[in-house]
Amino acid sequence: xxxxxxNLDKRSEESKSWRHLYKTALWQKGRAWHLRNNPLCxxxxxxxLAVPATVVDHIKPHKGDRxxxxxxxxxxxxxxxxxxxxxxxxxxxxxxxxxxxDGWPVENDSHxxxxxx
Length: 117
What we know:
The strands form two sheets. A two-stranded antiparallel sheet has the order 1-2. It is mainly α. The protein has one domain (22-115). Helix content is 44%, strand content 10%. The longest helix is centred in the first third of the chain and has 14 residues, at 2-15. The N and C termini lie far apart (32 Å). It has helices at residues 2-15, 25-37, 42-46, 66-70, 80-93; strands at 55-58, 75-78, 95-96, 114-115.
């Protein structure tokens, strides 16, 4: 539990300068518009599942870059489990294993892993 807390503290320190962007009217309106027009989770959709999205994710982490933050081409709709789990893994590891419909990684004979673009 201590490790998790220190990771949260680190994230808070790193993001203090740009967390306010999520509270702006421009973001709130853009987020609502995006979810209305893209209501399903992109990652779940890739697996043939229709799961409602609740998060507008930045495909490329913005790290406080306002242009990237508000660039709608950099947005994707995700469900909270995909955003809080799978997307975080992608950002940390920069690779994406194939995931089966049961939610577990698929074992295959290939040593190739789909790269994150």
